[in-house]
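Troubleshooting: if your tokenizer reports a length mismatch, compare against these two reference records.
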Amino acid sequence: MLTSDKEVVQLVVDQCKLHGVKTIVFSPGSRNSSLAIAFDEDDFFLTYVIHDERSAAFFALGLAQEKNDFVALCCTSGTAVINYYPAVAEAFYRKVPLLLLSADRPIAWIDQGDGQTIRQQHLFEKHAHGFFQLEDKAFNEEVLWYYQRETSILLQKLKKGPVHLNISLKEPLYSIVTKVKNYGKKISFSSLSKSILNTDLEIIKDKIFAKKIMVICGQLNVQHALISKLTDFSSRTGAVILSEHTSNLQNDLFISCLDRTLNMINREQEYRPEVVIHIGDAIVSKGIKAFLRNIPELEVIRVSEETMVQDTFQHLSILVSMDPLSFFNQFNDIGSNKTTNFFGKWKQLDLLAKDKIDSIAPSFRGLNDLYCFYLIHQLIQENTVIHLGNSSVVRYMQLFDMIKGCDYYSNRGTSGIDGSFSTAVGASVACPSKNHLFICGDISFIYDHNALWIKNFPTNLRVLIINNAGGGIFRMIEGAKDSNKNSEYFEATHNQQVIPIISAFSKNGFQINNEELLDDTLSNFLSFKESTFQFLEIITDRNSNSTIFSNFLQSMR
């Protein structure tokens, strides 16, 4: 097998292979050419080439998210690597395993006026779980031992999220040799404990006994075993299970439309939990955060494998360092402690809101955001993988019940709009057997439209853009909506339409700017028939959207 003549490059490739990093996303460049040569020559690896580094990083995030596996990124030196940062931050907060392989100039040339040189070492220090620097030099026994040890330790940390390997490479960069030696070496580490000490378990059981319990679930990948365990826990204890769409925990007993249900509460005291068990990552609903933060005597048990202490509701009392499934497995023998009808009160509100929405939402018919999302929800087919843009999109979708068999994803680790489209493309490529739907706003799509540039764009992806001519969410936020700066600086209104952008990349799209076209066109689009277009833009009325949303919530009370 042919490979790069650089021993340090061979070591990186061998260590990736040994530690199960099979997928590599490259962006073109010179300094990383030795790495491209070596990875490409080895049939073990699956490689992609994406020009825009920011888009490439989010594409890789989508791949890792869907595959539930390690994915590496590799770019040239200089500002190229900085473009990875938004996706790195997102992956850090969602524990998505991205290996960052940044090629670099020799360390002697940093800050010496040489081209494409910046300070790349420790660049991602605040949002990566580890960093190691490799130098391009001949190996002796000690250097090889050191590099093998540290790269193995670093790659073990991938399970937690992003790690960074910076590789200084000297010219020449393109020389090829026949591979004769394997430089891989793996150090194994024991896994986290799957059980709680008996003394700690008794403390937790005592804390939740005969209490009004709420389990609130943030962003998670699909875990069917956890759904079963939460259902059992709720039936035994009377706990209310709040599971946002992005938690991917679907069950008729759970409440997934948090803001819709909170909107129905008129006697707050009856619905206040005494103990909250918080699992998963980011929570979308601002309403539930405000509701729980304002309960003076609330106690929160945080269950997570992450090293950060997350006190989202400002009442953290116990931190349990383990995965949620293992945690709830500790309560198989817990007796029933349903002393109040706490679950029933919350579920009654949820069902009442559900009944109301189907009678109220159609009355707002028209080219406005609310009705469009209502109609989208009616027409999405079961078992579709749904990717949601941030801000208003994910909030609108969470007004409507989760669709059976659908998986929900959104870049809620940092809640940025900058790579949502690229992430959806990566996930669609990773899972070609399923239909994928990406729903976003106009600003989000335009910001990340370089995802259209990705080679072999997936045919199993449909992209739906709600164009309300700006960041419509700012017309709903108190303070922002009344500011005379809103239109220019916050909402950033514009007259750009996205179909011309899509056409420039030779993709097929259609625009709805007439209410009469809405139902049939949207139904056909979401059917995923091969004859339909891949992109749909819906023009909504920016001036009426916020008023309609406010009136809708008022009608739902």
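Reference record two:
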Amino acid sequence: MNNVIIGTAGHVDHGKTCLIRALTGMETDRLKEEKKRGITIELGFAEMLNSHGRHIGIIDVPGHERFVRNMLAGIGGIDLVLLVVAADEGVMPQTTEHFEIIKMLNIRKGIVVLTKVDLVDKDWLDLVEEDIKNLVKGTFLEEAPIVSVSAHTGQNIEELKRIILQMVQNVDKRKTDSTLLRIPIDRVFTMEGFGTVITGTLMEGSVSVGSEVQIYPGNRIAKVRNLQVHGETVESAYAGQRTAVNLVNVKKEEIKRGDILAAKGSLKQTMMLDVKIRMFDDSPRTLINGSRLHLYYGSSEALCKAVLLDAEALKSGEGGYAQLRLEEEIAVKKGDRFIIRFYSPMETIGGGVILDANPVKHKRFRKEVLDALAVKEGGDERAIIEQTIKEGGKTLTGCRELAHKLGKTREEFLVDIENLASEGKVIKLTEDLCVHQDYINLVQERANSILSEYHSRNPISQGMQKGEFRKKLSDYLFLDDPKMADLLLRHMIDAEYLRDSNSLIALPSFKVEYKGEHLDMQKRLEKQYLDAGYQVPELDEAIALEKDKNLARQMVEALGEEGVLKRLTYQYYMHNTHWEQAMKLFRQHIEINGKITLGEYRDLLNTSRKYAVLILEYLDDRKITKLVDDARVLR
């Protein structure tokens, strides 16, 4: 079912509430003060029943300038707007302000409703209609129907209903996947016997009884006990419905208007937003870089500082990129619309769209930053996805989080990934982690730099120890998780950009080349170990007579890597000839006796206890043998 939310906008006392009562039969003014003063202060809600089987909710918003904040809480996320103008008064200040707001919120469908037509004659009505046409010229309402009605006499109310039903046929369907659940909370109260209840417009996704949800900002997890849609108890609610959610595990005092009820883990809190701002055509103020503002989004408000990224100031009708630095954490998504009001005096001056809900801090007038924002604002879907992956790759952000950032389900995002991967633009490191090829190029450049320097300083080493290489790469990329560095390393090895040999990492083109002095040293050291037999020297002792101790140490390690020497510990190597003989004696004894003691092995080797222990502990460490009582047996 396609659910539709209709919002009203217009000057105070222009008949919005009476119009809704005529359309729905419901009274939306519920507060004593509203009924006493005859004006709407808080948001009101009604359902327009129809024979088309659609849920059509109507939001009644305040028109008085003192309650613009309340108006903003209700107008976001609607599908169709009724711009209400009283025929006896015509276009008034709040008519213009509300119209600027709904233009900024990118509402694309609407109807102009002239109310109280029973109070005026035709000539006056024609003048008012002309004013309205001038107001809406060049906007989404330029071709919209203008319907003259009287809630008092019922004139044209049925015609308005018909037009509404006709227009909502083509309203875009909202996504209903439960992982996208998001409800900006506009009311919080307690019901006796039930507990905490929140209400709001279900902007996207769906929610069911028994679901676990999260309250943002913050990490409060609650469970859905009951659901109501327009006063009827339901098992599930879907995008486009006015919804009341009865929550357990959370107190009323822990939630406030402006918080977001959403799927667990679906949002990421932020202190900064990258945005495109556009000033109202008749804005009374110039927005100067660094100005303090009131930011209105969803049903909430926050204070922020506007850092203009491509201008020193924005005047009436002008637009530009900005980074909003917030004074408290909020949770929003890319594509969300917002309104800004001057800090003091409180005047509505413009609005815009969120291009990145979790950006890094930017410096002003940076071409690469402005180019990226231009893609996020006006690029096609594939370009936006690629740009998001490109930026997310720098922090190795998972696919699920990137999907949430783009307002997509994980499944939708993975399809996009496969398409980009087939074009060679994206690399999948795991099922939930992808990076842009530009990032892989950066990683490979750094890997090449690290290893080229190492090979230059260690010409006879087969490669850098894997742990050392991983740490150097992690430090450069600011990776705290060793698993992430391992994933990048594994990709480079699989792509044959790096060579992995016995946990030594090298460039594929590197080869050990011994020069004359290297060959002489190699012969000396090999002879020393060959002559030592089983009584192997410590490494420092073996290289003591060599002038270049560092090179000599590398030579011993290289002989170990080549299989000439067998490395027993960090300090002890044995010539492979003696190692093979030691293993032959070991196997023969085990085959006959099934076990061997330290003393027996010492006697077989005709050496001291120290060197027999070296070999046996090496076998223990490699899980070849184990000590049972006082003898070794095979595992």
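Descriptive notes for reference record two:
- Residues 379-513 form a domain with the Arc Repressor Mutant, subunit A fold (CATH 1.10.10.10).
- The chain is about 35% helix and 25% strand.
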